[in-house]
Specification:
Helix content is 33%, strand content 24%. It has 352 residues and is α/β, with parallel strands linked by helices. The radius of gyration is 20 Å and the shape is globular. 40% of the residues are buried.
């Protein structure tokens, strides 16, 4: 049980949430009124992808999806991320759009995964988004910079603000940190140009969620799902047909923001999940962890071990020590409703 799953802890932390919520609201007022300066890039459009809550909402697959959409419209694209939990500081060029220039430890798992998925798109890590944006503008001259996880980072002006909300966890979006999951009050959604409701296929109360969101923002709402795209054998890199593991017992392990959604995705493929070893989000794996993973099939008698692509990126330093029956799942972003709303927003960038 996490601290936010304890009712007693949430009650005890509630006064701090009131203070934090007030501070975030005041900070937004300062930006809205110009007391805090917002910096503009000289010639590059900026799209921010962000959260209003903590935890995984699917920003990484959405950033990849969005970059591909922009490229299909002949925009030259670059990605800027802070590189959460990376083992480096300052500015890191993860990819120059021609080749990877660093490893997952220096870049962080998400920027490295984005760079690996978009080999022709420059990817840069810099916690100061304005400084990073200026570097990208001068070095790569893109038409559009996609900011990963930047909704609260208001120092850099953005032309489009997109917020992802996990439909499976929307009921938890009641209080701000530290007694709740919100990074800022839901009233902050009024700044958004588009809300992307992710994992919508895994909830039954979708209409209720949409109506609640409409109380806080009049922007378009796009309904999306995480679609299993490919199952890949970790050792060989070969694609494995989903049918080959149907009805088979499998063990899972993951260190992501929403492990329950990962389990449901695997179960929807008609695999029989017999065990799920859960690590913390962005967990840095050790040799001891690898040995623990190896025991999964012997303990549960599973035919295969399956993890996420983000986890496999963090396991690259141990690639020669991983179990032979390890596979990882590639996820793609699938828009169920409202694709035209997103595409219109992207088309409008050309004429602003």
């Amino acid at each position: 049980m996490t601290i936010l799953e304890s009712k007693f802890a949430r009650v005890m932390l509630f006064p701090l949430s009131l203070l934090y919520g007030a501070a975030m609201s005041l900070r937004n007022v300062f930006y809205d009124t110009g007391l805090f300066k917002i910096h503009h890039l000289k010639r590059t459009k900026v799209i921010s992808i962000g959260n209003i809550s903590v935890g995984g909402t699917g920003k990484t697959p959405f950033a990849i999806f969005l970059a591909r959409q922009l490229k299909s419209k002949d925009f030259k694209v670059a990605i800027l991320s802070r590189g959460y939990k990376r083992k480096s500081s300052g500015t890191i060029i993860v990819s120059d759009g021609k080749r990877l220039l660093t490893d997952s430890e220096a870049a962080g798992d998400e920027p490295y995964l984005i760079a690996r998925s978009l080999p022709d798109v420059p990817v840069v890590c810099e916690s100061d988004r304005y400084q990073g944006g200026r570097l990208i503008e001068e070095k790569f001259a893109p038409d559009v910079i996609v900011l990963d996880d930047a909704f609260q980072h208001r120092r850099l002006h953005r032309d489009v603000d997109i917020v992802l909300i996990d439909a499976t966890r929307f009921d938890q979006c009641k209080w701000v940190l530290p007694s709740g999951y919100l990074r800022e009050p839901l009233s902050g959604l009024k700044r958004t140009d588009l809300i992307c409701l992710s994992r919508a296929d895994q909830v039954k109360n979708l209409g209720k969620i949409v109506r609640k969101l409409e109380n806080f923002s009049s922007c378009p709402i796009v309904i999306t799902a995480h679609k299993p795209a490919r199952l890949i054998h970790a050792a060989s890199g070969d694609d494995i047909p989903f049918e080959s593991l149907k009805k088979n017992p499998v063990s899972l392990f993951s260190g992501i923001g929403n492990p329950d959604s990962f389990r449901k995705t695997i179960q929807a493929l008609d695999f029989t999940v017999v065990d799920h070893l859960i690590f913390s989000d962005h967990h840095q794996f050790s040799l001891q962890d690898v040995n623990k993973i190896k025991t999964l099939t012997t303990k549960s008698r599973a035919n295969a071990i399956i993890t996420t692509e983000k986890d496999i990126v963090r396991l690259l330093p141990f690639s020669k020590k991983l179990p032979e029956n390890l596979y990882y799942l590639l996820i793609e972003f699938d828009i169920l409703q409202g694709e035209e709303k997103l595409l219109t927003l992207l088309d409008d960038l050309r004429y602003e």
